[in-house]
Amino acid sequence: MFVVIMGAGRVGFLVAKMLEEDGHDVTIIEMDKERAKELSLLINGLVIEGDATDPKTLEEANIKQADAFAALTGKDDANLLACILAKHLNPKIRTSLRIGNPKNRRIFEEVTDLKRYFDFVISPEEIAAEYISRNIVTPGFDRVLFPKEGAEIVKFNIDEDSDIAGKLVKDLKLPKDALMIAVYDEKGNLIIPSGDTKLPEKGQVIVFAKNSALEGVKGLLERKKRNNES
Q: What was the pLDDT predicted at 229?
């Protein structure tokens, strides 16, 4: 996949590096001259010093051949304009819009005429705040958040002391708003579980659950075996 990224601050640079590590081609557009020069030594892809809200700069970045465009600067208005221009130059491109102000995100999503210009809206600040607040209230989870849906994907380890080790999924009696979606054995082999799946003695389980069910899930899946020795 060929991806053009606007803005190479901490978020943009990390996204670029992750994409390159996964084998994708990346071009970065960065306005700051010194930052652009620095980036040219840090990534394998092309780094263009310029303004992505200028159609000529987007064309220089081969936006018409790109599969995806990510506007990741800290300026909401510039990100929005760049996504509009990218879609105008390449209607088939997939655009990702970074929004710093959560209020702007809600406005952009509610304006029907704007929706067609961006395929994915992300607010790193909002996600970070949600992640921190959730870990303060319910600590101890290895989690992926779904703030809008009020749900999370959480990971739990299984070892020889786990009460759930060796049990069937249907016998766990998970809370109503929780679903086990994956099981990994000690060697990392993936199992998509059914009720008759027997959990390994060592491994991991992945559960998708509403926030209201997390404490119940945690208590059940982290419970240790009772010591029956006299």
A: 41
Based on the fold, state whether residues 21 and 61 are members of the same structural domain: yes
Range of the domain at 55: 2-122
DSSP code at position 228: -
Q: Would you tell me how many other CB atoms lie within 10 Å of the CB of residue 35? A: 18
Query: What CATH number is attached to the domain comprising 93?
Result: 3.40.50.720
- pLDDT the model gives residue 120: 81
Dihedral sign, CA of 60, 62, 64, 68?
A: negative
Q: What is the DSSP string of 13-47?
A: HHHHHHHHHTT-EEEEEES-HHHHHHHTTT-SSEE
In a domain, 37, yes or no: yes
Our count of domains for the chain comes to 2
Q: What is the pTM of this model?
A: 0.61
